[in-house]
Design goal:
Chains A, B: Belongs to the RecR family. Chains A, B: Keywords: DNA damage, DNA recombination, DNA repair, Metal-binding, Zinc, Zinc-finger. Chains A, B: It comes from Pontibacter actiniarum. Chains A, B: One of its GO terms (biological process) is DNA repair. Chain A contains seven helices and six strands. A four-stranded parallel β-sheet of chain A has the order 4-3-5-6. A two-stranded antiparallel ribbon of chain A has the order 1-2. Chain A is α/β, with parallel strands linked by helices. The mean pLDDT of chain A is 92. In chain A, helix 4 links the parallel strand 3 and strand 4. Among the domains of chain A are: 49 residues, Orthogonal Bundle (Helicase, Ruva Protein, domain 3), CATH 1.10.8; 92 residues, Dna Topoisomerase Vi A Subunit, Chain: A, domain 2, CATH 3.40.1360.10. Chains A and B meet through helix 1, helix 2, helix 3, strand 2 and helix 4 of A and helix 1, helix 2, helix 3, strand 2 and helix 4 of B.
């Protein structure tokens, strides 16, 4: 692509490094910023730099936070007997948005994936095992995506957690709310029958 | 959406102002930047700010440029007898990428659109009429998208250009290269027959 300006070319190249942004989209974003007030670009750039420089990771659960210990870990109203283990920060946000969970979290920072060269030592598993003895945790809720890598990680964790006196649970598999039986895959539909619950329970 | 950090929330809100970027995409971009080196975010922010502050518009053709007069207008090798009128800077980039056009440009900065409140005075039409008398231009090539607004703009321009001794042309309408006759709409296919050219001409 030929650009009429080196400055635009630089901006497009930087934007195109973002995931899911190709050069055409990057050009559209750059031209949009050129049309808007200068102030818009300044506040975008400032917000990104400020975030990258100042965001911390919670020392206890590895969630992102503005403070050393995150708002969830330091909240006295949270149920300290349940600990939800997730792979990513986005999972914490997704679960928090349901308003159905009041316990604590532990963010692994990924899943075990031999293909990508990610082993247990690359994840925050040691710090999970370290925080358990001094904690009030009685239940570990594994909320890891049901993929090959996710299931491997779950299996590894249950073995590591065997020595602790804990109830280990996982999120229910079943037909999504609003989903059609007809279009649900066999494994999911099968599990939704095996793990059937009393009608009208929720 | 609940965010675990005010800094991330700010960054997401700023990113979500970009066209085609929703809050979920914005969060994905923000978390991507958090995973990458700090340097990445810095160079993105710097490129955007530098572009927004320093990019100029060519005084002659209104194309974006790093200088007062753009590289195309100041290039002695360009054919100064043809002037291509386009609505947007992106059209200049698209035409330049074909390597089939060696003339000059004039960027209108939009098309006439009564619904969006854009009239002829909001476009760079006056400056087009002003640059013509002192120029060597013999042909005006209208390369405006064949929409309702584009055709209105073309019609308006041809009336304004009547008093000049100019050949007025427009880009050919026809079946796209690689396109299937069967799936081409009737108007396009009809025009491709009316405006048929000698076989093997290009």
């Amino acid at each position: 692509m030929n650009f009429p300006s080196k400055l635009i070319e630089n901006a497009v190249e930087e934007l195109a490094k973002l995931p899911g942004v190709g050069r055409k989209t990057a050009l559209r974003l750059a031209l949009h910023l050129l049309k808007e007030e200068t102030e818009e670009t300044f506040s975008l750039a400032e917000a990104l730099v400020k975030m990258r420089t100042d965001v911390k990771h919670c020392k206890t659960c590895h969630n992102i936070s503005d403070t050393e210990i995150c708002d969830i870990c330091s909240n006295p109203l949270r149920d300290k007997s349940v600990l939800c283990v997730v792979s990513d920060i986005r999972d914490v946000i997704a679960i928090e948005n349901t308003s159905q969970y009041k316990g604590l979290y532990h963010v692994l920072g990924g899943v075990i994936s031999p293909i990508e060269g990610i082993g247990p030592s690359d994840l925050h598993i040691d710090s999970l095992l370290e925080r358990l003895p001094a904690s009030e945790v009685r239940e570990i809720l594994l909320a890891i995506s049901p993929t090959m890598e996710g299931d491997t990680t779950g299996f590894y964790l249950t073995r590591k957690l065997r020595d602790f006196d804990l109830r280990i649970t996982t999120i229910a598999r079943g037909v999504p709310v609003g989903g059609e039986l007809e279009y649900t895959d066999e494994i999911t539909l099968g599990r939704s029958i095996v793990e059937r619950t009393a009608y009208g329970k929720v």
